[in-house]
Structure formats: structure tokens, C-alpha cells
Amino acid sequence: MNFKRIHSCSSTQARTGVLATPHGEIKTPVFMPVGTLGTVKSLSPEELSGIGAQIILGNTYHLYLRPGCDVISKFSGLHGFMNWSGPILTDSGGFQVFSLARLAKVTAEGVTFQSHINGSKHLLTPEKSLDIQICLNSDIAMCLDQCISYPSTHEAAKKALGVTTSWAKRTRDYRNSQPDTENALFGIVQGGMFKDLREQSALELMDMGFDGYAVGGVSVGEPKEMMLDIAGSALSMLPDDKPKYVMGVGTPQDLVELVSLGADMFDCVMPTRNARNGQLFTRFGALNICNARFTDDVNPIDPACGCYTCRNYSLAYLRHLYMARELLAYRLNTLHNVHYYMHLMETMRKAIVENTFEAFKKDFYRERKTD
Hints:
The chain is of the alpha/beta class. The protein has helices at residues 45-50, 60-65, 69-72, 78-82, 94-99, 126-136, 154-176, 195-208, 224-237, 252-260, 270-276, 308-312, 315-323, 327-353, 357-367, and strands at residues 2-8, 15-21, 24-28, 30-35, 56-58, 88-90, 102-106, 111-114, 121-124, 140-142, 184-189, 212-215, 244-246, 265-268, 279-282, 285-288. It folds into two domains: 2-267, Queuine tRNA-ribosyltransferase-like (TIM Barrel); 269-361, no CATH class. Helix 14 runs antiparallel to helix 15.
């Protein structure tokens, strides 16, 4: 993997770049739709490509439990299994172990847990997490880390950071012992909401040397101002010649603010999950399609939006589908939301190239009537 910075904003930390991977180049800043089980819910890979998705995210925990590496290996990885030809990033499975699995227990070796599907027992070590990601053949793999909840004490955050750092070193050493693998590897900055721990984490990871760096453990319930402060602080510590990834974020406003702080990559279930819950993102803010005022509205979601949904369907029809719980509602809503996120990132890249990012931000907030 190779990363090259192309343009920088003169008044913020925003930048564009190109991330070269075995399955294609990625223009940054970029948002990655989440394909937890080898699918971005309700959309085909062809549709994703058509609306501008450059890279998607797969979930190590879920794909390991079902269908399993014995199945996916028959297709030479996740690309062949799901018929997606573009780049894929896989997470380490750590977050899902701590949020979904039952009876998860952390030791120096790894984390033992029971599957949320059938209660079967498993041990996930840094090495096993990477083995699964190599089986999935993702372009970018993530180190296993220990996630902590918010709020947490400094002592608890420091203890978890020690585990995360140890696991990062083991993952890096294990990857380096397999010279034939093409998987890039990102380290994850942890440390809770404590800047001294975040700095310690960043320095330790940079000393090890990774292909890229992620900021994890944010947007986990903390106030928005705190999230931006902690993420921004961590981003400023990381090397500018490597891609910087803020995990699990977020709202359109989050993306705009974090791009201005120097972030290159994002992922979040928000555009797809919220679509299934009837919330649609627009340049004017979010709207809820179940609102009665859309019952006979002949207009599209946004007349200026070029997505398939807005080109072909009215708010009245979308509301009817959603209230009737028709499956098409979830597809059309998701197509619109993912298109909105892709267009937002494209617009930001264009503004950075033209050095008009500050003007873009002002227009972005000026147009919004909700949120």
C-alpha cells in the first residue's frame, strides 16, 4: 500500500490524497460504507460502485462466525465471495467482541468470548485476528485492540491501552513474519478521553511503524465537543505521510469537522442504519420519512440530488413504502443516504483542491435547517 498527499487546505488541516491498494486507488478523504456480513445492507456491489463507493468495510468478528473462513477461502477472499472488485478494509473484531459477544474476558493472550449467535466459545488473539483478515484478503487490516466504554477512569483506560499496545506489536511482528501477504496494517490509537494516554498511544504506535493509523474509541457516547477535541488531538500527533482513519464516525457534521482536522478515512453504519429507520440525509439536514407532512408530497427528497431515488420517486411514495414496511423502502432510502455521503466526500475533496474548504464549510452550515 502507498499513500500520497496531493493537496492541502491553506487555513485548516484538510487534505486530499491517493491511497494505492492491490484492488485499486482510493481518493481521500473517503467514507467507507459498512458491509458487516459481506454486504452493505440492501445494496448490491454494482449499486455501490455506481454511486461512487471506493472502498467498503467488512467485519472480522461476524464473518469469522458466519459463514467462516473455510467457506470464504474457497473464493480466495471476500472480494470473490461477495463480487466486489474494489478495495476492502476489515476491522479486527475487537469492538464486536466487547459490544456483542457474551462473557468476554481479556487476558494477555487475547480475548475469550462466547458467540452471540449460538454461545460457542472462542479465543481471539492478535495473531488469529490477522489470520482471519488475511483469509478475507482485505486490502487493509486492523490490529486487535481493547475497547473501553465511556466514561472510564484514567486507570482503566491506561490498563486497556497497555493491552492494545502489546497486541499491536504482536500483530505487526506476525504480519512481518509473513512476507507474502499484501495486506496493509493499521495501528489504532486508544486511551479513552485522556490526552496524555492518546499521546502515549500515538508515540508507541509510530515507533513500531504501521502503514496507516486509526483513532479508535471515539463517538462512544461522549459529548460531541469532547469527541472532536480528542480526535483532533490524536490526529495532530500522527505522521502526515500516512493515512489517518477515524473509526465509527459519523454524522455529516462530524465528517466535515474531522476532515478539517486532518482525517482521511471514515466508516459508520449511520447512512445505512438510519435509512432503514426512515431517516434521510439532505443538504438541508435530516428528515424523517414517516412524518405526516410527506403523505402527499410530490417532490423528491432533494431536487438537487442526483441519486436514483431522487430522480425517480416522490416523498409521498417513499413514505407510503416505509409506513407499509415494504422492502423497497429500505433499498431506496439506503441508495439515497449512501449517495449523499459519497457526494459529500466528493464535494469536500473538490473544495480542498480548489482551496475553498472554508467557504464550503460556511455554505454547508448555512443550508442546514435541521440537526
